[in-house]
Amino acid sequence: MDEAAVIAEPAEALPPAGAPRRIAYRHRLPTRIWHWVNALVVFVMLMSGLMIFNAHPRLYWGAYGANFDHSWLHFTGRPMPGWATIPSTYNLAAARRWHLAFAWPLVVGLVLFLLTSFINRHAQRDLAPRANEVRPRHVWHDIVQHARLRFPRGEAALNYNILQKLSYVAVIFVLLPLMILTGLTMSPAVDAAWPWLLDLFQGRQSARSIHFLCAMALLAFIIVHLVMVVLAGPINEVRSMITGRFRIPPERAPR
To answer: pTM of the entire structure?
Structure first.
């Protein structure tokens, strides 16, 4: 991924035939730091956000929304169990404090990551899809290969495939900015300073609905991401995100 400088292992350290034989530098330090900080921040914000949602488990479109208004999503009681929320017992004030406290690392971390990624060209080199990769035939091929659990091997394993690129671009450049902007739109103080946010999202209640949908999309991404890490080899994948070094899986033997 980032500066895949392959490091040859000493002959006496070579693993048996069929095992990975090389190590590559896969993730730069800024990417690794942002990944782990964001992992903590996003989980706290999701769980505290679910407690906030428990306070009024209804969603509306437009500028207004209250108990007797028409809602497009409506739960009765407190739909989110305590094990999925922060705090685990009903406490709206504490949930808001958790949510707002961790919003700052989310915003600052995203801005620093974007600046660093464009400066060191990680975004242009590793994340931007190429013209041949977005062709329907190529995308469908990657979907079929993932469905068969046939992940890239050899040098191909060092680069993001098109499904990874599209999902990472969607999260980094669409979901997270949308969550930040809609979160700001729900603040009366911010609305007073930046009333254009209300016009952009067609009202505070619409912003709340978009905020919730983006959070659920981010949760779905996290679940799929964790499943793919487990299927691709969790020790190698997690180690590469801690140390930056990735053991390259060997090419498949020809049939």
So the answer is: 0.83
